[in-house]
Amino acid sequence: MPSPAPSDAPDKPRVVLGVGGGIAAYKACELLRRFTESGHDVTVVPTASALEFVGAPTWAALSGKPVADDVWTGVHQVPHVRIGQAADLVVVAPATADLLAKAAHGLADDLLTNTLLTARCPVVMAPAMHTEMWEHPATVANVATLRARGVLVLDPAEGRLTGKDTGKGRLPEPSEIFEVGVDVLGRASAADPAGADLSGRHVVVSAGGTREYLDPVRFLGNRSSGRQGYALARAALARGARVTLVAANVDLPAPAGAHVVPVETTAELHAAVVAAAAEADAVVMAAAPADFRPAAYSDDKIKKRADGSAAPVELEQNADILADVAHDRRRPGQVVVGFAAETGDAHSTVLELGRAKLARKGCDLLVVNDVRGGAVFGSTDNEAVVLGADGSALEVPRAAKGVLAHAIWDRVATLW
C-alpha cells in the first residue's frame, strides 16, 4: 500500500500525486519523474479508472512504493486519512471532470478522494478533458467552488485532444505543472497554506521581444527571451491568479494554466495588451516592444545595391504601450508595472534614468535592469531595482528570475 509517512526520507518534501482516469494519465509519469529526481518523496494515488490507462506496476516502479486505489489495502494503517495528513503538497494530474465534481461536493468513494478531504496542505489540480466538458456549467461551477476553497485549479491548455478533436482541455505540459507545484510548495506557510494571495485576481503579463518587418525575411528586433515575463506568469499562477500572457515571439513552454496570446509586432502587442487590460487588476509589461518600425514594408526581399552602398531605412515611432495603459486605466485600483532596460549614459545613472521613465510613463512600479554588456538577456537569473511612484526603491539581488517575479507580485499586492 502507499506509505503515508515515509520513514526512509523524513526530510524530503512529501508529495501526493493523484492521477485521474483520463488518457492524459500517461503524462503523469513524466511529472512523477520530475518530482522524484528533484528530491521529493512521492506517493502515487491513482483512481481505478487511471489504472486502466497506466498500470500499478508502472507507478510502483517509478515512485519506489507500492500503489493502491482503494481504502482497504493496508487498512490497519488507515491510509484514507494518513496519506492526506502527512502530505506537504497534493498534485492531481490529470483531474477529470468527474474528479473535479467529486472534490467539489466532498465525495469520498476511493483513496484519492479521501486523501483530498484529509489534506491540509496546498492542493494543485491540473484538469484535462474535452472542451465541451470543461465549458459545461457544472464543471465551471465545480471549479469555482474549489478555487473559493483555496484549491489551485489550473486552466487546461489548448491543443490536440483525444481523437481528431482540438480545443481547450489539454493537460498542461508536465514540466510546467511541476514548476507550479514546486513554487506552491516553496511558498506555503502556516498562515496561508495554499500561498494563494492573488486568488480572484486577473493579471496581464507581457513577455518577449517584438519584431518589425522590413521585408518577407528581415526584421528589426531585440534580445528579449521572454524568460522574465514567463517567470512572472508562473509566479502569479502559483499564487492563485488568472493570468493572460501576451507573448511576443517567445520559444518557451506555456506556463501551466495561463491563457497565452501570441503576437509578433508592437502594434499587435499594443492591441492585445490594451484589450486584456480592460478587465485586469494588474498589468505587468515585461515585454520589450520596439520603439520604432520601418516606415515602409517591402513585399519583395530588399536586394544589395550594385555599388555596395547601404539602402536607407526610414523609421517611424511605435505607440507607447506602457504609457497608454497607465494613463487610460479602465478598472479602479488597477496596478501598472513597467520594465526599463538601461545602461546609463554620460549624464545620468541607470536609476536616474529609471526614475525619469517612471514619472514619464505614469506607472505605479518600474523594474529597472542594468543591461550593460548584455546582462539579463536570455539568462535564467536576474537582478533589479523595483522603483515605486511613492519614491520607494526595492533592491532584488541576483537570483533566479522567479525570485524577482515574486518580489514584484509582493509589491503589487501591497498596492492593492
UniProtKB/TrEMBL annotation:
Co-factor binding comment: Binds 1 FMN per subunit.
Cofactor(s), by name: FMN; Mg(2+)
Pathway given in the UniProt record: Cofactor biosynthesis; coenzyme A biosynthesis; CoA from (R)-pantothenate: step 3/5; Cofactor biosynthesis; coenzyme A biosynthesis; CoA from (R)-pantothenate: step 2/5
Domain (DNA/pantothenate metabolism flavoprotein C-terminal): residue spans on this chain: 198-414
Record field: catalytic activity: N-[(R)-4-phosphopantothenoyl]-L-cysteine + H(+) = (R)-4'-phosphopantetheine + CO2; (R)-4'-phosphopantothenate + L-cysteine + CTP = N-[(R)-4-phosphopantothenoyl]-L-cysteine + CMP + diphosphate + H(+)
A single MF term (Gene Ontology): phosphopantothenate--cysteine ligase activity
Listed Pfam families: DFP, Flavoprotein
Domain Flavoprotein per the UniProt entry, residue ranges: 14-180
Region (Phosphopantothenoylcysteine decarboxylase): 1-202
Keywords (A to Z) from UniProt: Decarboxylase, Flavoprotein, FMN, Ligase, Lyase, Magnesium, Metal-binding, Multifunctional enzyme
Positions bound to CTP: D291, K301, F339, K357, K361
InterPro entries, sorted: CoaB-like_sf, CoaBC, DNA/pantothenate-metab_flavo_C, Flavin_trans-like, Flavoprotein
Listed NCBIfam families: coaBC_dfp
Recorded family membership: In the N-terminal section; belongs to the HFCD (homo-oligomeric flavin containing Cys decarboxylase) superfamily. In the C-terminal section; belongs to the PPC synthetase family.
Protein name per the record: Coenzyme A biosynthesis bifunctional protein CoaBC
